[in-house]
Amino acid sequence: MKQSLLFMPTLREIPADAEVKSHQLLLKAGYIRPVAAGMFSYLPLAQRVLNKIEAIIREEMAAVNANEMSVPEVLPAELWERSGRYATYGPDLYKFQNRQNRNFILGPTHEETFTELMGSEIKSYKKLPLLVYQIQTKFRDENRPRFGLLRTREFIMKDAYSFSADQEGLDKAFRSMEEAYVKIFDRVGLDYRIIVGDAGAMGGSDSKEFSAPAAAGEDTIVYSDATDYAANLEMAKDFYERQPDDSPAQELTLIDTPTVKTITELSELLDRPADQLVKTIMLKTDDDRLVAVVTTGDFEVNEVKVQNFLGANAVELADEALVEEKIGAGFGSLGPVGLPEDVTLLVDERAADLANFSAGANQNGKHYTNVNWQRDVALADEAIGDFRLAREGDLAVEGKGKLHFTKGIEIAHIFKLGTRYSAKLGAQVLDQNGRNVDMIMGSYGIGVSRLLSAIVEQRGDEEGLDWPASVAPFDVHIVPVNLKDEDQAKLTATLEENLKAQGLDVLVDDRKERAGVKFADADLIGIPVRITVGKKAVEDIVEVKVRASHTNFEMRVSEIEDSIQVLLNGQED
């Protein structure tokens, strides 16, 4: 393609609202343009990258016998009302009415749609297992879209769904999708980790995230430096073996602590380490239950673990005024002793092992010392669990190595949904015994458009973009210094013809620009191999630059045909 005919509006200045590298470079290089907050146009260069990513996805989906199809982006609200998510999904859901005042949504994901379809079309286990997928625009009304394509209100997603008659079928589909995703991300040139993930609003019994380490990532990856353990921070576990303190119980004592509001202040007042004190955090579930969560003073409460333990759709910090009305004390003076019966008590296992500890007395400005479980607070075994947020440097969950933190971009998520949707929407088949059983489902998503940003975050540099050959908008960028020179013009045409004959995508910079402008734009848009045709064209010698390795060297044109695949892989011949 001739560059003079390519719509590629580059920028010389980075817009002030572009905070992260990928947003800055994709704007500057003319790949994307904003239309509204969190909504972007994909210009020709970006579209070519997306097309190549989607082609890789389609190839790997075909390899696991997944069927590509598509369903509407606009969905009737009744479908989501039947699953229960219309009320629980939250403000991110775009809702509207048509002219007949019927409620609709813009699809953020399509579990309900596919479940309804398969439930109406498949009636026998003999038609299962089945994998279906689509690549489609999705919509979520993010409160604060930011970081370019990383957090948007409109985005491209590959969503796939598996339907099985038994657990074995689900497990097989889950494994095959995980393996397919590994191949996809290997092929697009990303560094990534497979981590334990939170199912969140999707639900289900098991989930894994694919996360690309990057400074701009909004997720925290927790990983062991001695094993392959990795998890999202919300799901991460440290290593702890329960060892209940069997010290003799001392007398429960009420003390005045009028100035104490924090664990640090209590620790200083009592001259006791924070891990020998407890703090009580009051949470509220989506169905208005109050939950008192007790941890040792040196840990923070992990709300996601609490939510998953309770099977709640959401939990949040309770309003202090509500807590004071219900408990009789505000934040800073709360504790497990004397809680009302309708307040659910959950105790982290580390706190459950303490004896003679200090805690808020549920009276403003007062604490208890020498609190003991069972004597002072009834504690059932089923109320004890891991409710703490993992800390960097602690022993990893297997007891080997230390936990380390890094930022990551979530690029994919796979879920074992089980029968959460099929049971509610009546998607059943007859099993081998002639009984109606709910289909067992999995859900598998890839954030296609955010892959552009993930790649740029990992590979972009001061000069611009650096695309892997597998997804680059063009394979080779030919830059003639002066097309008015007959030798340069002839050699440029020959190179273009020969490279295209090898099936390569070639961009020729035929613009009437200075050489320096051409070189800067070439580095900016990030095509893997640049071939400069200059003064030595008469000798059939050109200069080659490999974008990934930042190396420049001269080559004879006759050598390029045999070397181009090596060069595309970012290496010198």
Automatic annotation (TrEMBL):
Which terms in the GO cellular component ontology are assigned? cytosol
Q: Name one GO biological process term.
A: prolyl-tRNA aminoacylation
**Gene name as annotated:** proS
The membrane-spanning stretches of this chain are: none
Its catalytic activity?
tRNA(Pro) + L-proline + ATP = L-prolyl-tRNA(Pro) + AMP + diphosphate
Where do the Aminoacyl-transfer RNA synthetases class-II family profile domain residues begin and end?
48-468
| Name of the molecule in the record | Proline--tRNA ligase
Q: What class of enzyme is it?
A: ligase
A single GO molecular-function term is: catalytic activity, acting on a protein
Enzyme Commission identifier(s): 6.1.1.15
As for what it does, the entry says:
Catalyzes the attachment of proline to tRNA(Pro) in a two-step reaction: proline is first activated by ATP to form Pro-AMP and then transferred to the acceptor end of tRNA(Pro). As ProRS can inadvertently accommodate and process non-cognate amino acids such as alanine and cysteine, to avoid such errors it has two additional distinct editing activities against alanine. One activity is designated as 'pretransfer' editing and involves the tRNA(Pro)-independent hydrolysis of activated Ala-AMP.
**Subunit relationships:** Homodimer.
Q: Which family does it belong to?
A: Belongs to the class-II aminoacyl-tRNA synthetase family. ProS type 1 subfamily.
Q: Which UniProt keywords apply?
A: Aminoacyl-tRNA synthetase, ATP-binding, Cytoplasm, Ligase, Nucleotide-binding, Protein biosynthesis
Its annotated compartments are:
Cytoplasm
